[in-house]
Amino acid sequence: MKPMSGILGEVYAARFLRDRGYSLRAANFGCRFGELDIVASPSEQDDLLAVVEVKARLEGSMLRPIEAVTAQKVERIKLATRVYLQAAGLKDVQLRFDVIEVWLNEQFEVTRVEHLPNAYT
């Protein structure tokens, strides 16, 4: 089960992307390799899929949220992306792997968000 900060982070990240013109293609797509938090396309690039890992942290955390995206996590995301593409019948699409960092205060209110396109390859 995801912690409350993770759930809120994903909800806010989805809204953040929609507000910036992205079309959400999938959320919480799960397979044996793991889960894709969000798959979205920028409005001007339908052939581009942004696979978005959302990381939320409480303010005052010692680490930035992106620091939780380890090499092992990246590998699982890439494997899950292959499964998603096959399940969705998608071919000839460009992929971009993004991270959205969400910071929350003690009342679980969003205080800051940062979208990092091409956070890893």
UniProtKB/TrEMBL annotation:
<dbReference type="InterPro" id="IPR011856">
    <property type="entry name" value="tRNA_endonuc-like_dom_sf"/>
</dbReference>
<dbReference type="GO" id="GO:0003676">
    <property type="term" value="F:nucleic acid binding"/>
</dbReference>
<dbReference type="InterPro" id="IPR011335">
    <property type="entry name" value="Restrct_endonuc-II-like"/>
</dbReference>
<dbReference type="InterPro" id="IPR003509">
    <property type="entry name" value="UPF0102_YraN-like"/>
</dbReference>
<comment type="similarity">
    <text>Belongs to the UPF0102 family.</text>
</comment>
<dbReference type="Pfam" id="PF02021">
    <property type="entry name" value="UPF0102"/>
</dbReference>
<protein>
    <recommendedName>
        <fullName>UPF0102 protein H8K20_05310</fullName>
    </recommendedName>
</protein>
